[in-house]
Design goal:
- The chain has one helix at residues 48-51, and strands at residues 9-15, 19-20, 26-27, 36-44, 60-64, 69-73, 76-82, 86-90.
- It is globular, with a radius of gyration of 14 Å.
- The two termini are 26 Å apart.
- The strands form 2 sheets. It has a 6-stranded antiparallel sheet with strand order 6-7-1-4-5-8, with no helix packed on it.
- The chain is mostly beta strands and 91 residues long.
- It has one domain: 10 Kd Chaperonin, Protein Cpn10, Chain O.
């Protein structure tokens, strides 16, 4: 893949997480709810602010559902997210 984010941005491959209720019912993505999105970092820009976050390629992160810009390359969807939209790192 030839995408390299510039500045304080990261390239993320979103991970779709199906939400299941306690009784085992799978809730579709079409339900209108505010949820956070998860993804895996594929590339990190060379900006000063994003470097201070201590992120690494391959790390799983949580970001806002509507954060970033969607990019489609080779029929795969990715997101380019600003450093300010990254909420947490999943350890």
């Amino acid at each position: 893949m030839g995408i390299k984010p510039i500045g304080d941005r990261v390239l993320v491959e979103p991970v779709t997480v199906a939400e299941v209720t306690k009784s085992g019912i799978v809730l579709p993505d079409t339900i209108d709810k505010e949820k956070k999105a998860e993804g895996r970092i594929l590339a990190i820009g060379n900006g000063e602010k994003v470097s201070k976050l201590g992120l690494a390629v391959g790390a799983k992160i949580i970001f806002g559902q509507y954060a970033g810009d969607e990019v489609k390359v080779d029929n795969k969807e990715y997101k380019i997210i600003n450093h300010e939209d990254i909420l947490a790192v999943i350890e």
